[in-house]
């Protein structure tokens, strides 16, 4: 049986559904304040955790350690540059069939998955490296 959502959880989920990008908990906190729906930052984090465990919010962690949250609408995959931090979305999903197989073979309900590749984008890979002797 699914627990009833709190008002804070509903507000955060509604906000995430209206945004077309993944955002940090701090961004959610600031956006809610700007909409006169203020709540404490700790409440934002607790609500995000509950929504994640319910399977309606997904989180992706950047190389910097920052977590970005979005409503679960579709699988999202990215190429993320370790130098400049740019994230390039990947539209195809090479592991979708694996997800289906795993759900069946392990009787495991998968809410979402993420796939993240880390490296250097074109701009950063051709940029000259600063010399230590300069």
UniProtKB/TrEMBL annotation:
Keywords, ordered alphabetically: DNA-binding, Repressor, Transcription, Transcription regulation, Zinc
Transmembrane segments: none
Pfam families on file: FUR (PF01475)
InterPro entries attached to this UniProt entry: FUR, Fur_C, WH-like_DNA-bd_sf, WH_DNA-bd_sf
Keyword Secreted: no
Source superkingdom: Bacteria
PANTHER family documented for this protein: FERRIC UPTAKE REGULATION PROTEIN, ZINC UPTAKE REGULATION PROTEIN
Family, as annotated: Belongs to the Fur family.
Protein name: Transcriptional repressor
């Amino acid at each position: 049986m699914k627990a009833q959502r709190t008002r804070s959880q509903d507000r955060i989920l509604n906000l995430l559904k209206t945004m077309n990008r993944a955002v940090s908990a701090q961004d959610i906190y600031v956006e809610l304040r700007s909409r006169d729906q203020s709540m404490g930052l700790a409440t934002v984090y607790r609500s995000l955790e509950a929504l994640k465990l319910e399977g309606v919010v997904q989180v992706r962690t950047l190389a910097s350690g920052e977590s970005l949250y979005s409503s679960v609408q579709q699988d999202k995959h990215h190429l993320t540059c370790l130098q400049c931090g740019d994230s390039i979305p990947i539209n195809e999903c090479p592991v979708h069939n694996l997800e289906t197989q795993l759900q069946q073979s392990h009787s495991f309900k998968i809410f979402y998955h993420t796939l993240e590749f880390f490296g250097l984008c074109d701009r950063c890979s051709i940029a000259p490296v600063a010399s230590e002797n300069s």
